[in-house]
């Protein structure tokens, strides 16, 4: 399992985004794998992660953005619960 993580971190985020941009501009995956040393599976995963999706209201987000937003939402919900509990404690005094 450790080897898998090591491979996953072999390429930084900027590199992955560059490969996705090349893919989106028409560069075939086979060419990208031979030029940059990433597997086709990795490239397709990066495309899925970094390709923008346009919403009805015109906003654009990637799967990566969505994951970050979910984490931030959970963090804010936890903070909100802590504050509610603190308010209840102070209201009793």
UniProtKB/TrEMBL annotation:
SUPFAM superfamilies noted in UniProt: Homeodomain-like
Pfam families named among the record's database cross-references: HTH_Tnp_1
Gene Ontology BP terms: DNA transposition
Gene Ontology MF, one: DNA binding
Superkingdom: Bacteria
Keyword check for Cytoplasm: no
Coiled-coil stretches: 66-93
Keywords assigned by UniProt, alphabetized: Coiled coil
Protein name as annotated: Transposase
Annotated organism of origin: Piscibacillus halophilus
């Amino acid at each position: 399992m450790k080897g898998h993580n090591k491979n996953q971190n072999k390429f930084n985020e900027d590199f992955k985004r560059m490969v996705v941009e090349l893919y989106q501009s028409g560069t075939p995956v086979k060419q990208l794998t031979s030029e940059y040393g990433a597997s086709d599976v990795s490239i397709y995963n990066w495309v899925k992660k970094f390709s923008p999706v346009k919403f009805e209201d015109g906003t654009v987000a990637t799967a990566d953005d969505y994951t970050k937003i979910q984490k931030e939402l959970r963090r804010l919900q936890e903070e909100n619960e802590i504050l509610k509990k603190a308010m209840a404690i102070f209201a009793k005094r």
